[in-house]
Amino acid sequence: MSKIQISKIPTIDQLRYHSLGKKRKKNISRESQKVYDNPIKINDLALEMHPEKIKMVVKNIIDENSQAKTIFLEKEKNLLPVYRGGDQIAIYLGKKQDYATQTYSISGNPLKKEYCITILKEDTKVSNNLYEKTKIGDIIEVSEPFRNIFYNRVLDQKEVLFLVKGLSITTIYPIIIEVLEKKLVKNAILLWEKDQEEYVRIQKELNKLIQKNLHFQMIALDEKNTKKTKEALEKIDLNHKSIFVAGNPSFYKRVNTILKDFELSSNQVHYELKKIKPSKLETKSYYMTVITKEEKKRISIHAQETILDSLLKSGIKVKSKCNIGTCGYCKSKLIKGKINTDQTYMRYADKQNHYIHPCVSYPLSNITIELPF
Ligand code: FES
User: Which mutation among 276, 324, 341, 355 tests ligand 1's pocket best, with the greatest number of atoms within 8 A of CB?
Assistant: First the structure.
């Protein structure tokens, strides 16, 4: 295991730091030992500004189509944290509501501060549950908004092309509104491989943008028709455009193949971050020993399922948020065993010390992990 080398030769900064240390010690010893009755509640204030969980009331539910519903949320009291186009929230639905079970893009208009999520029926167990059971007036716990898309990165050019598949329009639509209404780009084109289903609310809003003549063009294509997508791209001048791609991993693969035929610079194309499932996963079952602060438990796990999913299914509390290995909420220590994992967003020190992100890790043997909770 490699070690981090620390220089033994003191630099000017280190010398200054040492002399500061002496000064600070002196200052501290001079301070009064009095305990203040009413200290500034800085931690309370920080928590209020960045709450770990927010209780929201379901204010409205609308059908987008026969397969998708949009749930509008409002905070019970106080103001909501602001969000930007492309932000997501995690929904807490677990036992005792201790852990996040799924992440959704906020699919509302960020300028109207509309908090809503669009859920596809039978997408996952959680979505199905939300789709079938949520009623107006229900209380749902969500995380503060966070982002996997830094859309200002797409604005390195003054023209933008959004290449979107199906329901990923719910992530892209708030970004389109923001960049057009705030005049952050000269023009934007949306090339959308739609499902057979429509997204009524979002399409209506996109049509409004076209009517406002905000230099916005929408091209709706048949689903999975690579030839038509390529033909449509050939009609667009891709020079001086930032291209932003949102969809599932198989869409990314197709888009990659198509875009190879265009002479684009490597920093022109940006992808929404997604969880990439390794292509070859065994169909075996294993055992996982889980060590928490309170207990040691052995559960059976499957090679096709992430370690996070196995933990949640067996009722073990695990913090999670992004579900794609970026936020570090689920970080745990691998004590024994082999795993298949995406380490793209792991820190160097974490890798060296055998930390893993269970949300993007799959077992390759019996394993033992230690949770920090
Ligand atoms: S939930 Fe974010 S890294 Fe695992």
Answer: 324
